[in-house]
Amino acid sequence: MKISSNQKIKRFLEIVAVIMALFLVTLLIVLVNSNKNFGRFNRFTLLHTSGPVTADDVVFIQTWMTFDYVNHIFNLPKEYLMTKLSVSNGSYPRLTIEKYAKTKGLKSSVVLLQVEDAVRAYFASKQ
Question: Is 96 helix (H, G, I), strand (E, B) or coil?
Answer without folding.
Answer: strand
